[in-house]
Amino acid sequence: MAGAEEGLKQRKVGSTAPANNLQVSRVVVPTAEGIKRDQALDKHVEYEFGGPWGVVAIMTGFPILMYYLWICLVFYDGQLAHPTSVDDIQPFLLRMWEHIRVDASPNAYAWKVYTGLIVYQLFLAWIMPGYMQEGLPVPSLGYRTLMYKCNAVGCVYTTMITAALLHYYNIFRMTEIIDNFGHLMTVAMIYGFGVSFFMYFITVATGNQIRMSGNFIYDVFMGACLNPRIGPVDLKMWLEVRIPWVIVFFMSVSGACKQYETYGYVTPNMAFMCLATWLYLNACAKGEECIPQTWDMFHEKWGFLVIFWNFAGVPFSYIYSVVYMASHDPSNYRFSTPTYVALYLTLLTAYYIWDTSMSQKSRFKMQTQGITTYRKTFPQLPWGTIKNPSYIQTAHGNRLLTDGWWRYSRKPNYVADWIMSLTWGLVQGTCSPIPYFYSVFFIVVLIHRCGRDFERCAIKYGKDWEKYCSIVKYKFIPGIY
Question: Which of 106, 130, 302, 384 is deepest in the core (most CB within 10 A)?
Fold first, then answer.
């Protein structure tokens, strides 16, 4: 990155320095043109997501949709339920409410388990040693680079060992998680709403808000704070990994345990979901030092959009296939051996492209900061780091990667990520359309996010972005789109 550097609490990047010296590493100032463009990006100019009315619709509509899909999956054989006539509308709604009241009440078990997970993950994140990673320069902090304590690997596998011991000694049976899916989902939603509003009020009260629109509900949705921290724990990075993907993995394990207790074996389909969710959780943990290099960390604020989605949206709407398979006979979704081979190969191929493309981009950003020593967590896949990559040097001061997977597509990681999401639905075949919700919803999110990203890049890089687009022509799939 071009520009002068001012030392601030200097430390060796990648060290295991004490967490109480976390705040900032240094100041990395871009060019004058870069500062001008960053100032434009750090102002609220226009509403996204349909403005205040749009975010109200999302905040009310998505929880309702989550309840509806879960009810259909568990109580209507995985098929989309609907009123049978106009006269049945009110009884239908009452039936829906009864399922929520009885089978998704925020009971003591759900509060104990979900709160226990949050407390345990915060505790582990606080006390366990970690790899210290420098983030990107944050314009709103005067281009200071924050330090991030990356200890997700230790925390995740400590959690797995803890869960295994609790299950083995019958203190906490893994099968109970999938049996209490509805109750846990409601508690997760309450946390999502509660933390979102709390963070808005505490941020405004302390005067740390940034990029505000002036509309209350819209600012709650988008967020008021950028870098929320408790001691050594960066809450935004913590919530991105430690809660959603830990729950997704343990839901899959819970489904496998339930199958084993019921039938005496685990189906290849459920084993597939255990593998798929482990791959994703492990990737987020072992590549945690790459997260501070992302747009999410240095630009996106911590509001309902991110908080609710990580507390409730991801863990309770991505694994409908597990919920279906745990409550239905395996004969409904038994495949031929070649089909299983194709399914597993598709998952592993997509994972390889996703993992290495994310690694290539993040390590390229590290290289621009002078960081050339990387973590060696398992697995380190071939082509995860590009030596002497080609790139475009921008007037802003940043560099745009045009090598590796990124020479073929502007978002190769999105393509691979979506293919993985599709396999999570394919694993149960055509038994129910509901497990495909993840892939359908995800492609809509990715297209919307790409639009946001490309628009901001056009503002940030100007003619350099046009040059980049002329070199990397395809947004998603090379040769197609």
Answer: 302
| Integer Cα distance of 424 and 436 in angstroms | 8
Give residue-wise pLDDT tens across range 377-404.
Answer: 888 899 999 989 999 999 988 899 999 9
pLDDT at 368: 85
Q: Which two tokens stand for residue 361?
A: 């981009």
**How far is it, in rounded angstroms, from Cα 68 to Cα 76?**
11
Residue 425 φ/ψ, nearest 5 degrees: -90, -40
CA gap 280, 284 in Å, rounded: 6
Closest to 256 measured CA to CA, from 325, 352, 162, 311: 325
Q: For the chain, give the number of residues.
A: 481
pLDDT number for residue 455: 87
Position 15 scores a pLDDT of 43
pLDDT band, residue 1 (cuts 50/70/90): very low
Residue 367 identity: Q
* DSSP-assigned states of every residue in 423-460: HHHHTTTTS-SGGGHHHHHHHHHHHHHHHHHHHHHHHH
Whether the per-residue pLDDT at 143 is higher than 90: the answer is no
Cβ-in-10-Å burial (0-12, 13-18, 19+) of 93 comes to exposed
Which ranges of 369-436 would DSSP assign to H, the alpha helix? 412-426
Q: Residue 315: which of 261, 256, 239 has the closest Cα?
A: 239
